[in-house]
Amino acid sequence: MNRRYRKTIIAGNWKMNLTATETKKFAEELKKIMPRAKWCETVICVPACNITAAAKAFKDLRISIGAENVYFEPSGAFTGEISAPMLADLGVKYVIVGHSERRQYFCETDQTVNKKVHAVLNAGMNPIICVGESLEQRETGVTDSWIALQVKCALSGVAAERLRHCVIAYEPIWAIGTGKTATAEQAGEVCSNIRATIRGLYGARVARSVTIQYGGSMNPGNAAELLAQPDIDGGLIGGASLKPDQFLDIINAANQE
User: Fold this and answer.
1) 209: region left, alpha or beta (phi > 0 left; psi from -120 to 50 alpha)
2) H-helix or E-strand containing 10?
3) What is the pLDDT of residues 37-75, one digit of tens each?
4) Cβ burial 216-233 (10 Å sphere, 16+ → b, else e)
5) Please, where are the H alpha helices in the chain?
6) Which of 128, 186, 197, 220 qualifies as a cystine partner to 249, CB 3.0-4.6 A?
7) Span 208-253, pLDDT tens digits
């Protein structure tokens, strides 16, 4: 982490878990144990049907509410989709864009990810842009070039002054939900290369202002080591964010000197 130039952000991604009622219970449990954060910003990205309940439940904890997905059109005949203005009107501050599960199961492409990034920014919110490689891509040595391409596509047409509103989340696909985790050195190297890609596009001053998260099975046992890497500025937390005590342990790791 480098707090001198950028925010540390710990964001939970609940995926398709917890009801609105369970969201309220989670917040009550977290409220009992969570002190005021010193430095890091805390975000919880919840299913769309839980956003209103989450905004109310987490208000006293100073936790920002995030969405897990968005459609890129502002309105129209797109049955079942949710637009960026709709999310913004509910008080959403962050939106996950291009998660590997969206790419894998719902056929999202680099082009639709880019459209969603613009939609989120235009609505005054902050995209958490997910990039990552498969195990096959890592083993064939194309991790850096693959992720650089994803970053360039996602940020296509995004003006430099808007980069401070963008978060990049590196999620090695092979480490999501498998219990496997990239070593701190592996994760740090990829995040460093992501920053180098942004530097090549926008220059050093802009690149050093962008928060880059690690999103591959960060947990209480490895959070401190991962966050000690200079280019890892937080985490996009899956399973551990569903357990108040584990989520708090990761937040505390981000708040260490």
Assistant:
1) alpha
2) strand 9-13
3) 567 999 999 999 999 999 999 998 989 999 999 999 999
4) bbbbbebbebbbebebbb
5) 20-33, 51-57, 84-89, 100-105, 110-122, 135-139, 143-154, 184-202, 204-207, 223-227, 244-254
6) 220
7) 999 999 998 899 999 999 999 999 999 999 999 999 999 999 999 9
Residues designated catalytic: 99, 171
Return the exposure string of 42-58: e unless at least 16 CB atoms fall within 10 Å of the residue's CB, then b: bbbbbbeebbebbbebb
- Which residue shows structure tokens 């960026």? 84
249: left (phi over 0), alpha (psi -120 to 50) or beta: alpha
CA–CA separation, 167 and 126 (whole Å): 7
Residue 138 per-residue DSSP state: H
Residues forming a β-bridge with 97 = 129
What are the pLDDT digits (tens) for 9-25? 999 999 999 999 999 99
Whole-angstrom Cα distance, residue 176 to residue 183?
Answer: 14
Instruction: Report how far residue 189's alpha carbon sits from residue 180's, in angstroms, rounded to the nearest whole number.
Output: 17
Q: Which amino acid is at 153?
A: C
First-to-last alpha carbon distance for the chain, in angstroms, is: 10
Q: How many helices (H) and strands (E) does the chain have?
A: 11, 8
- Cα distance between residue 116 and residue 106, in whole Å: 14
Q: Is 170 exposed, middle or buried (0-12, 13-18, 19+ CB in 10 A)?
A: buried
Residues 43, 9: Cα–Cα separation, whole Å? 7
Mean pLDDT, range 77-100, rounded to an integer:
98
